[in-house]
Structure formats: structure tokens, C-alpha cells
Amino acid sequence: MDNLNSLIGGFGDILSPLNLLYALIGVTVGTAVGVLPGIGPAMTVALLLPITYGLDPIQGMILFAGIFYGGMYGGSTTSILLNTPGESSSVVTAIEGNKMAKAGRAAQALATSAIGSFIAGTIGTLGIVFLMPQVVKFAISLGAPEYFAIMLLTFTGVTAVLGASRIRGLAALALGLTIGVVGIDSVTGQQRLTGGIPQLADGIDVVVVAVGIFAVGEGLWVAAHLRRKAGEVIPVGRPWMGKSDWKRSWKPWLRGTALGFPFGALPAGGAEIPTLLSYTAEKKLTKHPEEFGRGAIEGVAGPEAANNASAAGTLVPLLALGLPTNATAAIMLAALQGWGLEPGPLLLTKEPALVWGLIASLFVGNTMLLLLNLPLAPAWAKLLQIPRPYLYAGILFFASMGAYAVNSQPFDLWLLLALGLLGFAMRRFGLPVLPLIVGVILGPLAERKGRQSLQLTGGDINGLLGGPVAWVCYALIVIALGWPLVSGLLRRRRGDSNGGGGDDGDGPDGHLIDPMAQMGRGGNAPGGGF
Fold first, then answer.
1. Domain segments of the chain: what residues?
2. Mean pLDDT of the chain
């Protein structure tokens, strides 16, 4: 009850013309930078940091929170329309969202993304109000072995569950892990896979990888095929979600929210893991498995909800522990310290107006984003009516600008071209791109957590076992890897008991057809796209 009274007081602070203006500026700028690949909310907040020191702390935090939330919304727009994630957390959205756009359902994909983001952001903000103490207690109870087990479960999900071909999935994951270890070893200080190039000593930024693989790879693929096929105008289709779309979206919205919020509150949890797990869950639970890989609306609704719920969860450890869980939160932490404030358990006691005003601004900013993005869904979708040569020329321009903005060095442009050629080759030979991106993002973190686990036990392998959370993760890994074999044996036994017929999934040559391969065939066939 005290929390509700404090929240009402926060609304009293935020609902002033000047504060509402800062919220509107924040969500508008955040949406714009989310659309541009490589820019992102973290860079924008960093650029605005010196300016905000002249503002009142609550106004500065309202502005930053609007940029943070708006970036999550905007990143999905280019993922859906152009297969170019504006943020690494929007990578999963591109898998089904861009297929929907190419099928003339761009407006539906954008609408389910906007509505799901609003619902998840609202529920996540309520979670900040009511669940902050419990979530923080759980987050700080996890150690390095638990995090390592969660990473392994994620790697298993992208290779053994999502892909039509496990071999191709493992190959793509290996490429991603290889890219992820480029740079200086954090323990020994030695350079790894840099080839003596100084610019690679700090590693390869995930934004450059995502933009190169998705945007440049897509542009090269389109350019290579325009010689055989004239540039086509993709139809926009019906402008709003139909009854069936609503029916298929509301459960993924809630499931994505349930996955995203706890991971956002975990140190180094981020939005990448819950968006991936949400996609995996929707692919397993859907009543329309044949649509996955061809444009399933559940594959957009769930990950986008997880994305925005994770953004809300990020503020829990930031405000309660002074612990940033991503780059944007780290810069917001620096802003608070610049104002002479110290985030942590005492912040809520010393600065209640700031904390509750910030939480109230999340509700207001979330509503503004829905009102801003939902009516614009058909207008955004009409971008697809631009002839493809002109459209992808613009994409390559903004992709190059975004990649250059990451480190402001020309070397990144050559790196972007090399990664674009890799993306083109992966598409040509049917390698799924998602395991590669997951390997780049989570590979270094998994390595660090695995090393920490072993160091705690002097190199004993038992150090990786951890506690109950790790045990559950390992059990799920065993089930995910062993289930296809068990399922195949059960089907074969059933077939033998029925007289050896081929009605239970056997192929014409008598070999058992992998049901998971049948479910995921659409996205991983050679030339089948990302």
C-alpha cells in the first residue's frame, strides 16, 4: 500500500507540462535512434550526458528513460521492415517479422510489436513497484555456475531446438563463438585471433556484426539476384490486426513478459536471452508450426514483449543495488553519480521523489510510445513500396554510418564489408544467422563465467555444477538433446508394432523424418533467408 501511495506521488511530479515534454522528447528521440542501425540508446544517452547535468535530476532521468524505452520500440521497426536490427535485442524479431513484411503483413507485425511492447512495459513497470525486493534477492543469489549453465542452455536452444539442421546450427554457433573471442584475453592479457591488427584488440562490436550480417548481407543478396529478377514492390496489406492476429498474440505477449522481466533484473542478463527463449517457447507451443520460418506472428509478439519487459527489469538492480545490467543502465548510473546521487538501497530512502517520479514516467512514456507507434504502423509499412534497389542503397548507407559511429574508425567499414560477405555466404549455403549472433553476444560472457566457476574450485569440474538453477538448466539441456532420439525410437517402435508401415513419420526410403527438422525447415534452406 505504501508503494501505491508513493507511485501516486510520483505521478503528481511527472504530470507537469515540462516533465511531460521531456518524456515526449525522450521517447521520440529513442524511437528514431532505435531505427538507425548502430546508433542505439546507449550512445544517445552518452552523447546527451553532458547536456543533462544542467537539468534537474528527475528531468534528466525522465529523458533518459524515454530514450531507453523508445530505443526498444524503434529497434523492431527496421528488423521487421528491412531485416536490419537497430539493436542486438531486436535480432530475434527479424526472423519472423521480416518474413511477415515480405508476405504483405508488415503492418500486423509492427502492430503486434507495439502493443506487445506496451503491455510488457506496463506489466514490467508494475513489477518494479511490487516485486523489486524479491527479484533483487533472487538475482544476487545466482553465482557464476548458474550463469554459465544458463548460457549453455541458450546455446543448446539455438542449435538443437530452433534449427532445421543441427549441423548447420552448430557451424553457425562456432562462427559466432570464434568472432566473440577476438580481442584480448581478459585473464592472460594476450591477443587472440587479431592477426596483429591493433583495431581488433578490443574485440568486434556486436552492433557491427549484426549490421554486417543482416543489413549488408541482405543488400548483397538482393543485388546478386536483381540480375535474374527485377526489383519488386512488396505489398503493404491490411493495415491493422485482425481477430485471428489478436487471438494468436495475447498469450505470447504474456509469456514474453514473464521471461523478460526476471532476466532484465539479472546482472548481465540483458534482453538477448529472454527474446531467444521466448521465440523458442512460441515455436514449441504454437498451433501453427508450419508458419515458423515463413512469418509467424507469435515469433514477433513474444520476443518483442520479452524485449521491453527486460528493459523494465533492468531498472530494478540499477535503483536498488546501483548495479547496471547493460550499457544504457551504466550510463544512467554515471548520470546519477554526476548529480551527486548514489544508487543503491539508500536511494529510495534519500531520494524518493526521484525514484517514484522515474517509475511513474515509465508508465507515461510507455503510453506515449504506443500512441506514437501504433498509428504509424501502416505509414512505416509503406517504406516497403520503395523499389528495392533504392531501398537497399539507403540501407547500406545508414548501415555504414551506424557501424562507423560505433568506434569512429574507418577500419570498421572494412570489417562491415567482410561480415557482409560472410552474411551473404551464410544465406547462400543455408546457415542460420541466429546462432552466430548468439555466439558473438553470449560467448565472451559464457567464457568469463565458466572460468570464474572453475577458479572458485581450483579447476575442479564440480565447480560448474552450482546450485538448483544450474541443475535445472543442465536437465533441460539433456532433454533438448535427447528428446529427438527418444522420440525417434518411440516412433520406430510404434511403426514396428503396426506392421512396419511408414505412416508414423517414416520417409519413403524407410528413414525416420526428424519432426523438429520439419517444423523449422522454412528459414534454413539454402537461399531461404535469415
1. 2-524
2. 76
